[in-house]
Amino acid sequence: MxxxxxxxxxxxxxxxxxxxxxxxxxxxxxxxxxxxxxGLLVTNSGSGQGCGNSWPFCHGQIIPGTLTIQGVTEYSHxxxxxxxxxxxxxxxxxxxxxxxxxxxxxLLSFLSLFFVLVQGALGALTVxxxxxxxxxxxxxxxxxxxxxxxxxxxxxxxxxFQINKDQQRVPEKAAPVSRAxxxxxxxxxxxxxxxxxxxxxxxxxxxxTGCGTQLPGCGSTYLPDFTSLAGIQVxxxxxxxxxWFLVLAFLIVAVRSYRNRPDIVRGAWWAxxxxxxxxxxxxxxxxxxx
Length: 290
Description:
mainly alpha
């Protein structure tokens, strides 16, 4: 009897461990989001030099004697980044041990760890180059890579829950997705990522106020000099507006052609809702002048 129950006990043990890994993945995703928000707070509050040019510690000390508000903001971001990096490392190891046969889970865990490390290194460089021209370029790249790191962790978490759901239901063949539709998904992803950088350029050059509070126009023209702050602002508006229409078209196609794929329809709806909210937040930033 004991021998017969061993496989069942081992199976239950693995199920419990995987449940803990999924919970840990959710915590890691939340940590990545907090890290992203703190990074934005550092940039928007001008706290990049809150700890001087020393890194990873603040003013060369693990526990500084005195800290300004900028110092607290910068050091909090560094601590959160370090903690989240450790969480991602542990999660990556767990995924590679427990989900050896799932290529997508292993790929996403690798990307999560890789981009967390790269964006951390760029974060250190932004401290070193604080106050120099190179900083704007580094900040934009740093922000973009931070988004990839965050997205990778979130997608990994979703994948782990998908695996669990697939194991609990009777296997059924998913409806096929056309090659053109797959290409459109990747195209939208790449285009969205490019727009992230145009938005970062707006933020880091101070172009949020380039057109004042005017929407959708910019002064007396819709095509200002694109080398000016107004031009940078308008360029971002145009490419972002195009993205909104593309995502709307994507949603319509998904609802009409893939009703039997609720995962695709849900994803399309979420993409449209989030893009719309992002657009509204951008408009609010212009109206309120940042």
